[in-house]
């Protein structure tokens, strides 16, 4: 996931990332500040830091740390589900002047273990091949984990759909029984009324 978004200083922006359990998540970000004179975003925002907070599906704070104007954060999920990643600048300017617009470039990689560049340039080809194989095996495990997670979600969704359909069916049966009961009661009431008035 690679994106950028605009934010005011001290304004918190959050994204939701659906992550399987026991998965490494790595985020890279870079902040640009709007320059009024140039009418453009400056390439860097020196002196500006970003406060990164990650919350698990059970509302537990997994990561809460202050970084610089650009940086990398990472965390490993222990629960599967929607993790909330929030970024907020730590602008120290007075609130009245803290309305400057920021552009935040964010790149999030889920379950990706990066291959060390020194491995690529290794002289020992056997070690290089071994490490590359381990890297591929890790990626295969991650894909397998993702598939299992999607399968679990699909099964949960199917169960919910079946329960909803079952509830609708029972509600239709109950409605039908109520209507039949009301119809029988009305016929009986009318018959008793006619008998009491000696019309039948």
Automatic annotation (TrEMBL):
Q: Name the PANTHER family on file.
A: TRANSMEMBRANE EMP24 DOMAIN-CONTAINING PROTEIN
**Cellular compartment(s):** Endoplasmic reticulum membrane; Membrane
| Name under which the protein is recorded | TMD11 protein
The family annotation for this protein states: Belongs to the EMP24/GP25L family.
Q: Known SMART domains for this protein?
A: EMP24_GP25L
Q: Provide a GO CC annotation, any one.
A: endoplasmic reticulum membrane
Primary localization: endoplasmic reticulum
As for membrane topology, the entry says: Single-pass type I membrane protein
Q: Which domain of life is it from?
A: Eukaryota
